[in-house]
Amino acid sequence: MLTFLGHAAFMYETENEILLMDPWMSKSGAFDSSWYQFPSNHLLGDDVRELIETTDKNVYIYISHEHKDHFDLPFLKSLPLSKINFITPKFRRDHVASVLNKLNPNSVTTPIDSEIVNIGNLEIRLFLDDQEIVRDSALGLHDSDSDFTFLNLNDCKVYDRVDELFAIYNKFDIFTCQFSGAVFHPVCYEYPEKKYYEISESKVYGKFGSVKNLIQKFKPELYIPAAGPPVFLDPNLIHINFQDVNIFSSPFKFKKYLNDAIPELNVEVPVPGSKFYFKKQQVDIEHPLENIEEMYDKKNIQDYANNYESIFLEREKQKSSYDPIEVQKRLLVELNSKLNGFKIEQKMNILMEFSLSEIEDTSIYIDFEYNQIDIKNKINKSSDLTYEISASAGDIGRLLDGYLNWEDFMLSFRHKLKRTPDIYQVAINGFLTMEKEDVPEFVNNLMRLQNQRERISVEVGGVLYSIDKFCPHQGSDLTTHEIEDERFLICPKHRWSFDLEDEGKAVGHDASINAVDLDGDGS
Questions:
Q1: Which terminus of the chain has a lower count of CB atoms within 10 Å, N or C?
Q2: Would strands 148-154 and 135-143 be described as parallel, antiparallel, or unpaired?
Q3: Residue 116, Ramachandran bin (φ over 0: left; ψ between -120 and 50: alpha; else beta)
Q4: pTM value > 0.85
Q5: CA 405 to chain CA mean position, Å
């Protein structure tokens, strides 16, 4: 039996085993209480805890990666840990495994990519995406007793490994993956309303299209939209929930999209507590209430926020204790430590301004061209390439005090960003999101990708092109690309678009796949 526990969390139960996957149940949300589960699953967390406390079955918990909407440490600490067997990937940065081992559970298993882990009659494999700017995993499960196969991608983008996954499992009874946006672009960027909506709509349908393509290749008996979107209960963020258009799509909007595109597909939107029974090669579904769509009604969000008002009042009180000037000095030291490890072998004529909203006259300026950083009076920027980020002293103070790490902070949406020109820079994104100890490895990985010049040939619009085999963003193999408008090559992982008629330059990003027209004239 498969039970949906909310967000990206599932539980698979057999006669002798219980396997939980990414249980995010805490009432404190995630990313310093910026994200919350929707619909709320907090009461279900109590039921799961009681089940584990009273069961005689072997209990396993899979943690896919370190994002706090998957790695809910407060909830895990509330469980009877002596009964828990954790499974988490063997990543280069072993943060999750290290933290889990310190909890003194019954066991911690860290399989490498595609390694088989046997749990009774269950065969489990993890599929890893282990890069410095992205670290995630997916889980494939086969129950030999019932011949049931479940593929849980959560938000792991192994889109370039479709053929490999299909060759391993041959069929998928239930498939689930993220369908909604979950990043800080464009949410935190300063855009005119029209452009904000245009970018959001493009991202929504780009994501929808990617998942639809996966579904068409996997041909599951049932697809379950999961792993988002969250809601935002902080009074400073709650407006995001009510924007006319943003990247956080309703599962019912996606279900309609799939029904129109793939009429024969079975799609079931779950709520916390929904159960899926696999019997005689078919899936029976049982929801905890009749009108599940009502649980997703945005009218519930304000009441939800009111219930957790005390968390945000306490948080604001703690934030007010920080002195902005002292925080700015500490931030300078932190960013300088990052810059010392940022030994990048490429020209970066970029000026970053990092400002605190309480300080009007000075900012921290980072000149990447000359590898310099200092606190200076606010200036009219002379560089054509600028990146601006601002946040409150309280939010940065909490970051520096370890309430959250840099990636958590960026995902908290408690900052504002502006870039000129409006072009994505992999290096700058990595500089902001990486921990200072991970910056050198990130730079090494980025340089490896940029120096990786294996080539492949593709025919598009009747023209044969030679291109770099690997995407300059995160190294995805472009052999499994898509083509749009007989001109643009689309990376399967993050849907970066490369214009083959413009030397393979990325659309909206500072990167290229260095396309060469082998026919010589583009005809």
A1: C
A2: antiparallel
A3: beta
A4: yes
A5: 15
